[in-house]
Queue: 4 jobs
Job 1
Amino acid sequence: MAELTYLQAISDGLRTEMRRDKRVFVIGEDVGVYGGAFKVTLGFQEEFGHWRVLDAPLAETAIVGACTGAAIMGMRPVAEMQFADFISCAWDHLVTVAAKQRYRAGTPVPITVRLPSGGGFSGGPFHSQNPESSFAHIPGLKCVCPATPEDAKGLLISAIEDPNPVLYFEHKHLYRRIKAEVPEERYTVPIGKARTHREGDDLSVITWGAMVYTADEAAQQLDSDGVSVEVIDLRTVMPWDKQAVLASVRKTSKALVLHEDTRTGGFGAEIAATIAEEAFEDMDAPVKRIAAPDTPVPFSPPLEKAFIPQVDDVVAGLRELAEY
Amino acid sequence: MATTEAIDVVMPQMGVSVSEGTITKWLKQQGEQVEADEPLLEISTDKVDTEVPSPGSGVLSEILVQEGQTVDVGTKLAVIGGDGASGASGSEPQTQEAEAPAPATAEAAAEAEAPSSAESPAPTAQPAEETAPAASTNGKTFVSPVVAKIASEHGVDPSQVQGTGRGGRVTKKDILNFIESGAQPAQAAPAAPAQPDAPAAPAAPQPARAAAPPTPPSPAPSAAQPGESFEPMTAMRKGIAEHMRRSLDTSAHVTSAIEVDMSKVSAIRAKLKKEYQQSYGVNPTYLIFVARAATETLREYPWINGEIRGDQIVTRSYVNLGFAVELADGKGLIVPVVKNAETLNLLGMAKAVTDIAQRARDKKLLPDEVQGGTFTITNPGGYGTFHGTPVISQPQAGILGTYAVVKRPWVVQDDLGEDVIAIRSIMNLTLTYDHRLVDGALAGRFLRDLKHKLENWDESAY
């Protein structure tokens, strides 16, 4: 086991699959010579050659379109969007073609789209979004959002070997901040399985991505009040692990759903609704949501701090639920 | 501040069979100014949910009965004006408070197995609660889904658990700790105060009540069997249950039925329909023809419009006609009364019935409108039934049932006096009467006359 950053774990997972499977190739803006905007593919072109590490023009439509065609022809493309925000250009290819192909024609479309997402570094409205709920809503697409280096590697490998289009949301704020032991060998983390990040009895926080750490810090503060908080890291937003969430909520009877995406129509709404539908009789308080407000992500650091849920916000929300 | 004489606010009489009411909400807080006739509080009885207007103007100086408590009719609920707690009311609140918890406790015992009701009375064993602001009372009475579930599984009344949640709410932890600590559910509470209303009930109009055998305290229900689930009885359902049982225990119910050819009424209905709907927004239903004809007939049969009161027979110069109305949710029945029905022509009857039926379904009836009936009409025929044996609304002597109008082959006489079979619209009517007062022959003659009026409808007379 080696200690890797979240970013190194992504590189490690990608390299592992490219070494193992010749059908896997990488395509994106500046992923080749430059090694990627965040250096995930640094050294990849040297190792795998320029035909497997393709620099694409600034055209997300073309990148996803090319991936879809290559996947139908039997390849395992991994596309990198320089920022998750830019995926909107590729909406049509993803949603209209890639997501539907399996249902229409029976042909699998095993593409992986890597999406550096999330804010926290004054990236402003075009470089900070978390658009997972938009794609979770599209039948035929899978969405994974790893929070730890170990999951980052294991879920990337699962995404590549999955026969369906998988959107892989990698949180930029975790890239170099989060470091942990990661197995050197190849392994997979199953898509659709949540992970209990922290066990507790009194309250459940359901979250994913960078918010797992925010929730954990908040939970530590509540711990000193004698309130035991369970943190469920969803890991996969679609398909999401309903059973794990319901089991936790049935145990604690109080749920807080936390995400960095904006509130209205965010994926937390789906989780809250499901809890209300299926665990109503086990609830001891209304389901609470903490999410970003319904605005674009601001540039200004103080404003961005006010926008993205902070540890204090979560602590306040948890206390409110605990006292209910 | 108020310098006026103190005015007492008492629990109003909401209907003949109603002896108690539950305060659901105080619309004014202690110390607030209130004007005469301004809504002061909301109460719920087995008949109606309604606002009670303030009997006078002044400062609401004292609230004596808190939200969620059930008290007898006539119980003093609050004081307006005066010097607040001093003076005459100084000693009285003591008695009131001592009295008020009694029915609440009895109810809590009866409800021990069905504790999820939001209306279940706040615990009375905590005097501190009396001074707490209304908000905390509200918080305390809310029972979350999981607490309700645990309570019903373990047969625990959540109102007996000390709550630590917001506003004193009982949390899941609270009830689990309560159960773990081995606290006994409230089932064992003595059922003795089951009749706190007996002395309070006005003696004159309710002899039937006094004569009725004491209702045996219902045994505490056992826990749910597999496949069973509990739901708490509403105040209305309890009221209906009590009244139905008491009526059968009081009157000697007998039912007679008659077949009525409604062809003429049907033709007149068709003719009036457009005018009634366009000009008055009401429908000339078969029911109002029957109601109109029954009112006329009752004037000739005062005993059927009468009542046994003690050793006396009461007859009247008026007809107050009750109509059984099913509530929109299908979970209850109410009998609003059209007063002085004998003064209404057909159109007046149509308007009156439409109005009270609508307001009954909207729960907008005034307390006065569900009491004082002298005779009742029930109409189960809407669903196609052709016969029934309704239960008399006490203390009346009879109830008329109207049933589906169906086309049937019918023997009539043609112009030559020959019998022929025709297709006619036939309706069955039943009169269920108290045989203690009404003999079978009398009931038969009543039905015969009623039939005659309907079959030979005289437009000029009605």
Job 2
Amino acid sequence: MSDFSLWIIVKNLLWATQWTILLSLIAFIGGGIVGLILLFLRTSQVKWLEVPTKLYIEFFQGTPLLMQLFLFFFGVALFGIEVSPWMAAGLALTLWTSAFLTEIWRGCVEAIPKGQWEASASVAMNYVEQMRYVILPQAMRIAIAPTVGFSVQVIKGTALASIIGFVELTKAGTMINNATFRPFLVYALVALIYFCLCFPLSWYAKRLEGKLNVAR
Amino acid sequence: MSLVSIRDVRKSYGTVEVLKGVSLEVKKGDVVAIIGRSGSGKSTLLRCINGLETYQSGAILADGIEVGGVHANLRELRRHVGMVFQQFNLFPHLTAAENVMLAPTVVNKTPKKEARAIAAEVLAKVGLSEKMDAYPSQLSGGQQQRVAIARSLAMRPKVLLCDEITSALDPELVNEVLRVVEQLAKEGMTLILVTHEMRFARDVGTHLVFMHHGKVHESGKPKEVFAAPQTPELQQFVSGIG
């Protein structure tokens, strides 16, 4: 017991936290890029683009993230492709994030008055130009708060990657507990670290929301 | 040859037929005022001309371009057919000049500097030279609508469609917008206006179209039509307005 001073536990957890942060960043940035592409397809009013996008979103929103991780980790291996926990976790979280961000952003796009679409169409702009120059600049303003809010879900979602053997904060906690047999202390510290990561973000999201309400 | 040719156009929303075979020819330089009760189909007709609404049968040709059909070249059409809306629909995140410059730079690939010159020119035309860098929220309704007109003019349209462009304005702001439209008419711009401004329709219009129940009920020279309406519906409509 005395081998594991509090400091060593904290140090190891903090070391693992960097992988939680990195995985979150990958999922959030990757999910943001994929989500933006999907957003264009989803709001295109072109049926054969919209329907597959909708199915994609339904799949990732309608199944547990844990199942998605399993599917990527074990499923892809069936095709003879070796998947590292890193790859599986990064990919599954990216796609999962993209599905939710697309839906959040679609709501923001749809909140822009129809007149903006009609006016921009009337000066001969095409769909991509309308989105790029007229709709998204306005939608982005209202999207910032819920997007930052959702980043909290992404950070917490990375905890599930521990189950496929990805050593991030939660997995590190489990490993340290196996060595120290002090579950309450270890998991309380793990939770505290998650809280320290998430709270500033949700606080910031709330503040952004408030700011926006004043501006209106 | 007609600049805009509307032939037996029919449109339904579900089972409700809102346009029941409308035909109309508009020549270059014409100022056509479309009047009628709400629900008579006049706004729908106007929105069909630049493809904002689809129609089920008939044909609309604007500047020789077919409007209907799946493969209609709406982009090419809309470069020549401008539209001004009742609610202005300015882009709130852009200044007056940027509102005007956007389509020339994005659609026509006009260089920024040149587009800025176009913006200065058309904003001067609507009397808003000193508001180039103002955002829509800093402008009055009348000023916003004039920027919207300038935004359309920047594309050098051959026809300008005006959909009740003074209906959302406070009474004291109506005239500044009408004066701009009158000036455009004088310069030979082809205009199709859906309007409730009867005096304006009579004084500035070259043609008057009275729509009733989805059809052109009566049409002709504005002064003649207003002086002696032929149908009881128009008589009632004109007298109702006083």
Job 3
Amino acid sequence: MYWNQQPEKIAEFVHQKSIEILTEVGFCAPEESLLSRLSKAGFIVNQETKMVRITQELLEAALKTLPKDVKLFNRAGSIGLDFNNGSRFMGAGTPVNVLDLENGERRNATHQDVCNLITIQDALPQVDIVRPTVTATDLGNHSDLVEIAELARRTEKPIVHRTLSPERVEAAVELLAATRGGEEALRSQPNFATLYCPISPGYYTEENIQCMLKWAEYGVPITLLSMAMGGASAPVTLLGELVVINTDILAWIVVLQILFPGQKLLYGSVSSVLDMRTGILPLGAPERGMVNSGAAIMGHYYGIPSMCGGLSSDAKELDVQAGFEKTVTAVPLLLEGASIVYGVGSTDAGSEISYSQMIMDAEFIGGLRRMMQGISIHNLGEEVELIKANTPRGNFLKAKHTKINYAQHWKPEFLNRDAYETWFERGESLESKCREKAKRILQEHKHAPLPANVEAELERIIRRFLGPDFGFDPIK
Amino acid sequence: MKEELLEKLAQSVIDGEPEDAAALAKEALDQGLDPLECITNGLTKGIQKVGELFADGEYFLPELIIGADAMKGALDILEPALVGGQKREVVANVVLGTVEGDLHEIGKTLVGTMLTANGFKVKDIGVDQPASAFVEAVKESDATIIGASALLTTTMLQQEKLIQALEEAGLRKNVKVMVGGAPVTEAYAKKIGADGYAEDAISAVNLAFRLADAPE
């Protein structure tokens, strides 16, 4: 247990405070048609201020229809990610910059980077859920649809993304449905979830509201993703910030359940606290892992998967800062059982994705997962006999028991355990090893292909919505 | 008596007490003190001290912001009382806002506070402001610097539109444009023809000094 109280007690406390805020003050929903729908449904709506308050009855009804068994599936719809057996890891996203694979320099990310980074996530067994992780800046305002199509084509793993405008949702659903043999599979065994951020406290933009309502019409899972900044857009204390996070999310759990009963939702938080020196939002701060572990607790409380920002850092390169911050922001999430840890590949407060960091993060995930196994109590009969037989000064390396059981120890791929001289003679940096691996993946890894007719259909859909110049494959 | 009041004014800014600052400003006017002297030898001294403490790592943003807030409250009382040709000395007039389609407020406001604390006069036009609103504000305020914030990859394009609008209004050569926000980079700023880019509020102040051609 990580917080100094039982998680259920914390959750109940925070939940009650959110109810107080949502019934007394409410939240702002600047979307005309939604306001009248909410008013009809029993919400207390102020048309002038666009403030909406909930009632106890609405809350109860919403929590009753909120689906508790939300899973994300593979593209075939055959395997659902189990969120009850340790945290799952997801690519970060989606800044406009990338640290170049060849020279590590910061530059605008392109369509090519999107394809590369999807392929790397597809290849890394430690990554469970794939994001484009960067924005294809060479595609301008059309990046969202192409990114969704590339996700759907280049990996069988569950994928997460969003559209930039509500008009795009229909096209995105068409693309996704084409890879699933129809909309029904997308709804019943979703391999895709979307995400939208409120501006905390208590506000979603008109456009984001329209996007969410549109996705809900198709029954696609939506992540309500708080991005609170403690000390700026939320109270500076972590518990106070958690109340803001929860209030923003609970408000829209109620809205979406009342309008679309049974709509699948995820509880998301990529929050942190404002750095009081620079005014940036540091994503490597211990507080980042701490406050988002609160979101994991709340996700458990409502019975929906939590998507929590962590395994993140403010480092500008693959260095000791990155190592410390990645770990310190991941551990609280793992301890509180976050369903999804959202951060693979991210660096510099989320401003860039780094190829080498993405590879290194996979290494960290391996070690962290091992750490989380803890020491299990088991029948020690064999070990005790072995100890007796080897006392004194025996050698356990010769024992069969060792050969059978050593596999459970974690074996790093990149972290160095060589003797000093070996290490010195090889002269390889972690950075160069990670870059080599990324390049090797890009050369060798083949994603599971879609049937040719589906590929052609995706291309047709893209062109129909974006024009004849758009297509796939900066590289085949 | 006068010295004591000026010192108290300065201290109210250093301690970050907006109510005290406003009350002291009123008291000073009631006692017939020169408002310009209250600003120069009271408030400005206070905010300079706040800036020093921040630079020394003793103060952090909360002290800075509430200090600037205290200063602003007192200025609102003292400035209207200036007589004749009296004018508060400012480094430069700045128009600040978040571009159209973007509702992000905090970073922009922080830059405004930091500029105020460093002697700039800031007209904050708020969030979701079309290029035309920036243009109008420049005309009204004789600003020589514009700060335009965008936090979304979709809205940063509005920063370019703003520069075009300034060209069209014939104002481009009168004002320097600085841009900022999470997705914005130095290269992007150059590409759209902005005069400068700052990554955070502190570098925004340094940039503004450079753009105003004033010593930092």
Job 4
Amino acid sequence: MRSIINYLKEIVFGIWSLMKGMKVTGSYFFRPGTIVTQKYPNNRKELVMFDRFKGEVVMPHNEKNEHKCTGCGICEINCPNGTIEVLSKSILSEDGKKKRVIDKHIYRLGMCTFCALCVKTCPSNALAFGQGFEHAVFNRELLIKQLNNPGSQLMKGVE
Amino acid sequence: MPFDIYDFTSFTKWIDTSLHNAMSPFWTTITEMLIIGVVVLVFYAIVGLFLVYAERKVCAFMQNRLGPNRVGPFGLFQTIADLIKLLFVELIPIKNADKFLFNLAPFIVIIASFMAIAAIPFALGLHAIDLNIGILYVIAVSSMGVIGVLLAGWSSNNKYSLIGAIRSGAQIVSYELSVGLALITIVILAGSMQLSVIVEAQREGWFIFRGHIPAFIAFIIFLISSTAETNRGPFDLAEAESELTAGYHTEYSGIKFAFFFLAEYMNMFIVASIAATVFLGGWMPFHVGSWEGFNNVMDFIPPFIWYLGKTAFVIFMMMWFKWTFPRLRIDQLLTLEWKYLLPINLVNVLVMAFLVLMGWHF
């Protein structure tokens, strides 16, 4: 008798657990809002990448065309495959002292593995990751980028 | 030319008499067979292509994806593009394969599903051959497909193919029992094996409602065991991709592979139409007792649409099963059949016979 009850219990439990699974897939089927696929080339305009997306390394500038890079070269040392090259020059500051500033911050996108060591180790948070990801070009030379804008200066108060 | 979407009898009669007037009875029969063959072939191709598309769409929506959406509106022409590609694919000759059986197998699979479609009533008068043992014929013919599967596995000279084919054989031999007994339950209720009589008997109410709980249990068992019979997931051990690459059709390419692929979807369609015919009233509209207005509105929908709608519902259920449940192991598969479905089914037939004997059904 007991075994028969167990047998029937097993059947009912089996059907119940199957229905539970079907409820999940069924609810997805009848709610097209849950679809996560992006129709990529068509939705270029409204496509928003997520916050932590590593598109490319950029150097943020403020509205007065100032950046935070002091030209210390820590990013260049940390880069595992020689993607970054910091070319610095020395200028005379207002009080007549010699000061080192960056001339060009060279970033070779074609060699970058997006390990984020440069962004993490920058002592003055001068580097960041941009959201752009459509980097395909016809000439390899175009992948060598200069991150500091022409004519930009070091932000006041960043040493 | 009399044409009525609610009753095709006069239309088919008109074709028959006008052919008789034009030629001798022998040639009339030949011409009618040809016409039906061409119509079924076209129907077969369209349904097969559409089902592949539907499967991919349903599966995609259940997995939070979009599915095919590039070729044509909503990707409707994707399967046509796939078919054209398959037609151009090279047919690779297999070393040490049994050439004759290797080439014969896809045809056996496709002929088996082709023969079953002849006995299915699509609408009033749209019924190629109305045998008085229709259900028996359909069961017999649809289980012939396994011969093609076994031959394909045997002749390919490939261990994966052979394992897949033998699994398929074990599976179909055991699940055929459940399919037969589930249909027998309804045959007891209907008192006939003729499909047109079964459909006609459901004018006042579909058998799934008239037969109380036994009919419902039979419907569920039929769904499960017919899914297994068509080698579809979660019972797709015969072509388990992760274990056997592609099972019995590993060595097939091009149009021969397309035959197997098409036959799988057509078997699903045939099984779904049998379920719709036997349990859900075939092309009969949905009627509720004495609601005159409601019944008239339901009568307004053409029978062919009713038939297709019910079939689509059953097909959707089978796709829902496939994309929800994980694949069974071979011992679990046989346990399900011999320890659960078969005993339940036997008790169910007994209960149904008792119900009919006492006249407790509607």
